[in-house]
Amino acid sequence: MPGFDYDLFVIGGGSGGVRAARVAASMGKKVAIAEEFRFGGTCVIRGCVPKKLLVYASQYREHFEDAAGYGWQVGESTFSWEKLIAAKDVEIARLEGLYRKGLTNAGAEQFETRAELVDAHTVLLKSTGRTVTAERIVVAVGGAPSVHGALPGYEHTISSNEALHLKQLPKSIVIEGGGYIAVEFANIFHGMGVATTLVYRGKEILSRFDGDIRRGLHKAMVEKGITILCEDVLQKVEKRPDGSLAVSTKAGKVLEASEVMLALGRSPNTKGLGLDAAGVAVDPRGAILVDNYSRTNVPSIFALGDVTDRVQLTPVAIHEAMCFIETEYKNNPTSPDLDLIATAVFSQPEIGTVGMSEEQAAKAFAELEVYRAEFRPMKATLSGRAEKMIMKLIVNAADRKVVGAHILGHDAGEMAQLLGITLKAGCTKDDFDRTMAVHPTAAEELVTMYSPSYRVKNGERI
Ligand code: NDP
């Protein structure tokens, strides 16, 4: 790196940035990384990890109820939001420490400051005004909840960021959105006893998922007591003298709530980052444009993770970072493989999915076999919980390949990880059929659906 302060400078200490910095440093590169808030990024500090801890916490109410059917007598239970948030914060601080330690052990220099691009090789460290140069720069600054400034009363609303730090548990909440965050938080708050209403603009929540699973989750959430208003949007949020909020919707409803949360997607964090100065091209949403190797139009500048708005998922950002390392430092050009990403929605019941929905597959293939099971899991028998599990395999009739696998029910996320391997390996339905069941489990249903529930030919169910 003749003439540069560093081989690599990473802006953003989230999942992607930390991985790129840590691995490059461990290879002996001179690396620095700047983070303006806390190391760990969205996933660790205000996303996946704290959210999942809250999901676990919110499930206990049903666990206590279910225990009676299994012979347990559970005494009166109480819940402390304050204790939960404090415990969650301790865990997050521990994880942040591990991220920092990993960087330190690898020899990456850490700057606790906002950093902005000055030109193709120069970064400004805002806290000191110092500039440093690097042969390569990785921008991995992530995203933030999309703002909805046009909504009158927007200033009274919160996002998932604030939801993780509320001083007290609200009595009631209105959540707008029908994606991952809206659905997960609706279940979290409901589980903690908060009167919860979900308002979504489309016909059915979770627009990018399999229709069966979407309808199944909607039904289960309503049966639990969550109100879901589809084909509606918030029109106004007003604060009353007593501090409560009055929410007017386009369809003419007026809802009362202690909190209003918006979960309308996440936007790239590129404002004021100096991308113009460095000549880095962005799309109309502000996402950094990259090629298959995470290269921007400026040869020395790379971008990965949510800031590129490819697929906003932690494992994807980490994978993109590893591909960057392979390509730039191991002479092994590797582009991220974004096909067949298994994913989970930590709703209650949970969704685990990989591959095409039935609707997508019906457009892609002339004929499908759909294997579908809807059943009461054994776990729900003695507890008496009226809970249904849905499992679905979408098979391309032409070559018997399983092109989609979808589960609604307990542990669906765990199962999706393993189904992801089978689909990635190109397994056919015959491979599933000759796999011995693990008994008694819910997952065994995946290998015991021997005849198709129905077929879809030229887009028509027959
Ligand atoms: P999503 O893209 O999942 O959902 C956004 C929702 O907001 C959609 O229902 C969308 O409707 C709706 N919406 C968007 N704009 C408007 C608007 N102007 N008015 C009304 N509704 C609107 O984003 P999230 O914010 O839920 O999450 C961000 C990303 O974070 C996700 O895409 C996901 O990749 C990641 N994530 C992953 C999790 C996981 O892996 N379990 C958990 C949480 C987040 P429509 O569908 O009609 O477009």
TrEMBL record:
Annotated Gene3D superfamilies: 3.30.390.30, FAD/NAD(P)-binding domain
Segments passing through the bilayer: none
Domain Pyridine nucleotide-disulphide oxidoreductase dimerisation intervals: 341-449
Annotated catalysed reactions: 2 glutathione + NADP(+) = glutathione disulfide + NADPH + H(+)
Record text on cofactor binding: Binds 1 FAD per subunit.
Keywords of this entry: Disulfide bond, FAD, Flavoprotein, NAD, NADP, Nucleotide-binding, Oxidoreductase, Redox-active center
Enzyme active site: 439 (proton acceptor)
Binding site for FAD: 52, 306
Domain FAD/NAD(P)-binding: from-to ranges: 6-321
Disulphides: 43-48
Cofactor(s) required for function per UniProt: FAD
GO biological process, one term: glutathione metabolic process
Family the entry assigns: Belongs to the class-I pyridine nucleotide-disulfide oxidoreductase family.
Reported function: Catalyzes the reduction of glutathione disulfide (GSSG) to reduced glutathione (GSH).
Subunit structure: Homodimer.
Protein name, UniProt field: Glutathione reductase
